[in-house]
Specification:
Helix 4 runs antiparallel to helix 5 and helix 11 crosses helix 12. By secondary structure, the protein is α/β, with parallel strands linked by helices. The chain contains 22 helices and 5 strands.
Length: about 425
C-alpha cells in the first residue's frame, strides 16, 4: 500500500501571486461593502476589471481581437447602464495605449466604443429627451459635500484639500496593508520585462487618478481599478523571499478580516459599535460611542420615519388630509415612505429629487404639504407662507449621516404646486 502525503500546494495548486491577489481582492473593504449593498456603484469593480482585462487580451491575443472587441463593447455598455463612470477606465486605457507602442489596438477599441454606443442608444435618447439630467447630477454631487455628524469630512471643495482627502480614501477603501501591493502593481509593468507591453494599464491608472482629482470626484469613484493593479502587484511580489511572501499574505488576510465588520454586517449592531470603539473610531474622550459606518447607519430609521409621518398626517382633519401631499426632500425618505407607508395608511410620497421629480406632483395642488427632511426647507419657505416644525423623527443608529429627520407642515402656498414644482427639482445624491 502506497501512502501519499498531500501538501498544501497539492491541495491548492496556485502560485503565491494568485493567492495574494485573490485574498487581497476578496477582502478589499470597498469591494465587500459594494457587494453587500445594491447601488449604482456596486457593479463598478466587475465592469472596470472587465475593461482592463479585455484591453489586456486585445494587446496580447491578436488572433482573437474581433471577438474581444465585441466583448469589450458589451462590457462598456453594461457598465454604463450601471453608472457612466465607466468612461473613466475607457478614457484612461485609451490614453495609456495612445502613448505606448500598443496604440495599434486602438482601432479595435474604437470598434468596441462604437458597439457600446449602439447598445446605449436607448439610454442616450432618454438623456437627450430630458435635457441630460446626468450632467446636473454631477454638478449636484460636486456642490453637495456635507461633513458627517462627527465632523469627519471625506470630500471638500478646494482642489488641493480634496486631492489629499481623495488620496487618503484610497488607503481606507483598499486596506492600508494592501496599498503597497497595488502601488507595486503600478510599478510592475515599468520594472518587469514580461509585463512591459502592459504599461498602458499603469498609465491609465495615473491618468484616471489625476482626472478624478481635477473633477473633484469622491474617493470611491475609482475603486474599480484596484483588482487589476493588485493582480499586477502580486506578480511583482513573487520575486521577493519566501519569508516576505508568507508575511505579506498573512498580514493582508489578518487586516482584511479585522476590517470586515466595517464592510459586512457580520456583527450584531451594538457589538459593532463596541468594536468600532475598540478600534478608536468612536467614543473617544467623554463622547458616547455611535455607529460610524455610514452605509450601515443609513439602513435604520425608515420604518420609524413612516410611523412618525403617519402620526402627523392623520392628525389633520379628513378634508385637509385628502388634499395633503407627503413631500420628502430626498429620494431616500420618499422611497421609505412608499415602502413602509402603506402599513400605516399613507399615500405615495412626492419628491423633487432625481426620478421622483420626473414622476411629478401626483395630482396634488400643494395647498398643504407634510414635508420631511431639512436639506431643502429654506427653499420651501420661499413658496409657503406658513412652515411649522411639528415633529422630529429620531433614530440613534442613524446619527452619523443625517441625524434626526424634521417633519414640517407647510400651508398657504404662493402658487399652485404645479407652478412651484420646477423650482423644487434637484438632481444629485
Amino acid at each position: 500500500t502506497e501512502i501519499y502525503t498531500l501538501s498544501l500546494h497539492d491541495a491548492l495548486p496556485i502560485s503565491f501571486g494568485q493567492a495574494l491577489a485573490g485574498a487581497t481582492t476578496l477582502l478589499l473593504p470597498a469591494y465587500l461593502l459594494l457587494g453587500n449593498t445594491l447601488t449604482t456603484s456596486s457593479f463598478e469593480p466587475l465592469f472596470w476589471t472587465l475593461v482592463f482585462y479585455l484591453s489586456i487580451r486585445l494587446v496580447r491575443t491578436p488572433s482573437a481581437r474581433p471577438r474581444l472587441s465585441g466583448a469589450l463593447g458589451v462590457a462598456i455598455a453594461m457598465g454604463a447602464y450601471g453608472k457612466y463612470s465607466i468612461a473613466l477606465p475607457v478614457i484612461g486605457v485609451a490614453v495609456g495605449l495612445l502613448v505606448t507602442p500598443q496604440r495599434l489596438v486602438l482601432r479595435w477599441g474604437a470598434a468596441a466604443a462604437a458597439l457600446a454606443a449602439v447598445l446605449l442608444a436607448p439610454n442616450l435618447f432618454w438623456q437627450t429627451l430630458h435635457g441630460w439630467p446626468m450632467l446636473e447630477v454631477l454638478r449636484g454631487d460636486a456642490t453637495h459635500r456635507p461633513a458627517f455628524q462627527n465632523g469627519l469630512t471625506l470630500e471638500t471643495y478646494g482642489l488641493a484639500s480634496n486631492a489629499l482627502h481623495f488620496a487618503l480614501e484610497q488607503v481606507l477603501y483598499t486596506n492600508p496593508l494592501a496599498v503597497p501591493i497595488w502601488i507595486a502593481g503600478i510599478l510592475a509593468p515599468l520594472r518587469m520585462r514580461e509585463l512591459r507591453d502592459l504599461r498602458f494599464v499603469s498609465l491609465a491608472y495615473v491618468f484616471i487618478f489625476i482626472l478624478a482629482v481635477l473633477f473633484a470626484a469622491k474617493g470611491y469613484y475609482i475603486v474599480g481599478c484596484y483588482a487589476t493593479l493588485i493582480a499586477f502587484g502580486a506578480v511583482y511580489l513573487e520575486r521577493t523571499t519566501a519569508a516576505f511572501r508568507r508575511t505579506a499574505l498573512a498580514a493582508v488576510a489578518v487586516a482584511g478580516i479585522a476590517a470586515m465588520p466595517l464592510s459586512l454586517p457580520v456583527l450584531p449592531i451594538d457589538t459593532l459599535i463596541a468594536y468600532e470603539a475598540r478600534l478608536g473610531l468612536t467614543g473617544r474622550g467623554e463622547t458616547p460611542a455611535h455607529l460610524v459606518q455610514p452605509v450601515f447607519a443609513e439602513e435604520f430609521g425608515w420604518r420609524r420615519l413612516a410611523r412618525d409621518v403617519a402620526a402627523v398626517y392623520f392628525s389633520l382633519p379628513a378634508a385637509v388630509r385628502a388634499r395633503t401631499a407627503l413631500y420628502a426632500d430626498t429620494y431616500a425618505d420618499a422611497a421609505a415612505l412608499d415602502f413602509f407607508g402603506p402599513k400605516y395608511g399613507l399615500p405615495k410620497a412626492i419628491s423633487g429629487q432625481n426620478n421622483y421629480y420626473l414622476w411629478g406632483t401626483q395630482g396634488y395642488d400643494g395647498s398643504t404639504l407634510v414635508a420631511i427632511g431639512a436639506t431643502r426647507i429654506e427653499l420651501l419657505r420661499r413658496y409657503y407662507r406658513s412652515v411649522t416644525l411639528v415633529r422630529t423623527s429620531t433614530e440613534p443608529y442613524k446619527w452619523i449621516v443625517e441625524g434626526p429627520s424634521p417633519i414640517y407642515l407647510c400651508r398657504d402656498p404662493i402658487a399652485p404646486l404645479s407652478t412651484i414644482w420646477p423650482n423644487l427639482r434637484w438632481y444629485g445624491a
